[in-house]
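Hi there. Long-time user, first ticket. I'm pasting a complex I've been working with (about 675 residues overall). I'd like to know whether the download I got is complete or cut off, because the file seemed smaller than I expected. Thanks.
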Amino acid sequence: MKIKNNIVNLACTGLVGLALPVTAFSAEFEVSGKVGVEQRYFDEKGQFNEQLSHGQASIFIEPELYWSWNNGNDSLTFKPFYRKDQHDDERTHGDIRELSYIHASDNWELRAGIRKEFWGVTEFQHLVDVINQTDTVEDFDGEDKLGQLMLNFSMVQDFGIIDIYVLPGFRERTFAGSEGRLRGPLTVNTENVSYESSDEEKHIDFALRWSHSIGAFDIGSYWFHGTNREPILTPVMVGNKLVLNQYYNQMDQFGLDVQATIDDWLWKFETIYRNTEEDDFWAAQAGFEYSFVGVFDSNTDLGLLVEYGWDSRGDGDNGSMGAAIQNDLFFGSRLAFNDMQSSEVLFGFGADLDHNAFSFVLEANRRFGESFKASLDVRLFQSTSSTDLLYSIKDDDHLQLGIEYYF
Amino acid sequence: MIHKRIVTSFIATLALSLSAVSVFATADEAAKQKGLDISKEAKARDAGWVDGTADMLMILRNKQGQESTREIKTKTLEVLDDGDKSLTVFNKPRDVKGTAFLSFSHPVGNDDQWLYLPALKRVKRISSRNKSGPFMGSEFSFEDLSSFEIEKYTYNYLGDETVDGLDSFMVEQFPVDENSGYTRRIVWIDKAEYRLLKITFYDRKNSLLKTLTYQGYNQYINKHWRPDSALMINHQSGKSTELKWTNYAFKTGLQDDDFNRNTLKRVR
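Hi, the file is complete. Here it is re-exported in full:
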């Protein structure tokens, strides 16, 4: 549904859909988006009392409204999101993914409002990606993010792109509720959230990033100062129930991401150094992706991915929490069939080399007709060591079928 | 005597064939040169468009006649001392709406290419070695859609033929890049205006793979000829892809500044 119109005409008659020639003064308005249904099936009953047993259905809507004027140099985007979950009250949630204004000039842009910003190059973990809070209840892969209020000034220079971010307003991470699966033994308390900063969730965060492409290399580096997106969770008794309270400290973080694109090889490297009141640490994720074009005498492309994740905190001891990914190896394979329906299959396998813990994911999707897309996901977890984070979701193997309609 | 005669005639034949070889060699050189000259002239006649925008509809058809449509916008900047820069953005199918592709092409070596994935807000540098793979499931490969640069081929003039009533040159082009999906292509270029009328593509086994024909040429700003549509037929699979262009515009004022990762993220 695309409506091009002239502002004056729109104002005078309120009619839409008249195909008038686009001039420099015309505005463009577009409505698009998606709605979807999703069904999860868990093979085993949950480890913890209140968890749903097998089936979990949900529906979601994510429309996008877009206005642009001044020849596309000014634009406004509004993208709300809402999901209704059958069982998990915490997964039933809404968010403004985007409510953002952009003004673009020759070599600079001003972006203001609620936005999402992605940084990084690796596939199995997004270490350097720090601007937006993770919408953990949405999906297990951590790629869904909550909208972040920001003022972002971006300049294109000969030596690369400089981005300055001022981030007022902090978003708490989302966590599965008591009936939800894919969580630890204790649920996270959404009340009584505490902060290191006396400004609490009103602390104004700041980030400065430089990114550039030099020949085969794409490099990005940044410094972030503000509220840590990862909470420290502490068990407390609330009434007669043990829950986890969230505490967000302040952090300074340096990040670097590099990709070298050399023939069929993509070499990827990400590292961060984080300094907080509680600890200082380094972490890195590195690996490669190699593509075979037209395998099996067909149009299918086969990509192979290998990544390794390391964290100086190690797997933790009595004194510290440790890191989820501290000595982990990942293998993946992507099959793109390059057919009319854009069919794709992705496999991933992760192994924690310090614990007997493995995870396996399969994601397959294809288009049906012009506007429908179906996806099938399978996630399997195995862990025998109770100190590993995967241990609490070891019974959460599941299959997920999704159908999305795009408009 | 008989023996001597045979030897004599053998020598005569040899001499004849030797001279024939040298005649062919000169003819061969001349054909190469003419093929190159025609291609250079075609490129030179179209030079100076500075920048261009267009809307493109891509209609994919399989053997059973099922159709699928892609709606694409392109912005291109002519770069005279290097390959062109281009921004391509998808509007349909809806599930890839907003997906955009930035390419800095180079006459020799790999192009620099970035892909923007709007759902993740992620810009990904991608390998440009995949020249032979299909573009969005169509019968066009990435190399079929990349800008024509003289250095990408070696040439051979094959003769003249009439295409759609137009007297045309027939030139064989051999890709220099070893990652090309073709051993060669034959292009038909009309003598009057040096427009591409038809291309046949030969796969790595040198069998006829595809035929591309262009229709409905119009001249823009009194110089540049652009087709309204093109049809690519894959003879081996029976599938075809039709391209339809609308809203061609040239010298729209696009700058180098309009082709970077920032513009890639907000292009519509």
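A couple of notes from our side: Residues 45-266 of chain B form a domain with the outer membrane lipoprotein receptor (LolB), chain A fold (CATH 2.50.20.10). Chain B has a mean pLDDT of 90.
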